[in-house]
Amino acid sequence: MTETSLAVSLITTCKGRLAHLKETLPAFLAQGAGCEVIVVDYDCPEGAATWVNANHPQARVVQVRDAPIFNACKARSRGSAVATGRWLAFVDADVVLSVGFCAWLVGHGRGSSTDCAARLPT
């Protein structure tokens, strides 16, 4: 990883959840310049990759074909493989992120030896 890499890579997966992604992807993309968004289309029957490329070309798309059964670990690993961020944030397609989530994540991890951070709802 270089000094110029992004702070956070938001990675979300989609297989049959395009309706959720349509609602939440704009909030993922609104996180700011230090955050990249990666959508893993895990053989989505609704064509998530096509929709994302047509409507949100600033998101990176990873397409997995011939995967009849969803495997979250494999899907997230595929997204991780192309990520450039210092932090990886795995976010389900039905999660609406608060404005500033990525900034919070970076601020929480800066200056610590934290390898993993989780924020639970309060």
Walk me through this protein's architecture.
With 122 residues, the protein is α/β, with parallel strands linked by helices. The protein has a single domain, classed as Alpha-Beta Complex (Spore Coat Polysaccharide Biosynthesis Protein SpsA, Chain A). Helices cover 33% and strands 20% of the residues. The chain has four helices and four strands, in the order E-H-E-H-E-H-E-H. It has helices at residues 18-29, 48-55, 72-82, 101-109, and strands at residues 8-14, 35-42, 60-64, 87-90. Strands 3-2-1-4 form a four-stranded parallel β-sheet, with helices on both faces. Helix 2 links the parallel strand 2 and strand 3. The longest helix has 12 residues, at 18-29. It is globular and about 40 Å long. The termini are far apart. The relative contact order is 0.25.
